[in-house]
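Check this.
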Amino acid sequence: MTSFSRRAFVTAMAACVVAGCGGGHDAPDPQRSGATGPPGTRAPAVGSSVDGPRPLARSVPVGLEIPAIGVDTPVMRLGLAPDRTVEVPPITADDRAGWYRHSPTPGQRGPSVVLGHVTVGSYGDGVFRHLARLRRGDGITVRLENGTVARFAVTSVRTVAKADFPTEAVYGDVDRPELRLITCGGPLEGDEYRDNVIVFAALSATTL
């Protein structure tokens, strides 16, 4: 697999609670960064071994299930907004999670990033309303466009202030397939939640 430029990282904050809530930090244009594929990935050194299932080929995610918190959602694609911040899913009654398309696809080597709302304004709870309830070992299933199923296990859950968003931990290079689920959390400050909830998970199994 090609080694990708770190300049292609886009620093995302979570999908937030109400329309008008910020979606992300300013970001460089991935197409001008010198990257030739999904950012946040790198090939292991020749002869090295990586624990866990073999990484999958690139295939776009189409569905996401998290049984422990009752999530079963289609997955849409997200890019960059005109202001160069990361897009978030629209505020609609039919709330869905969104995969950031400049990250690896789930099951590829590297951190695949999925955003979701905690609430969707007058429509009520968002798809990631109970994300903070996840615990180490809980399962996450991602259905891919090519029919493959990628199964992940939660390794940690963090609630952090948006002002201290852990960019390196979320987007930094890793040598195995990992997943990041991001939403808002903590107390409300005006129209926005103060914090982000970030779930870290690693690939545990695949079904072809």
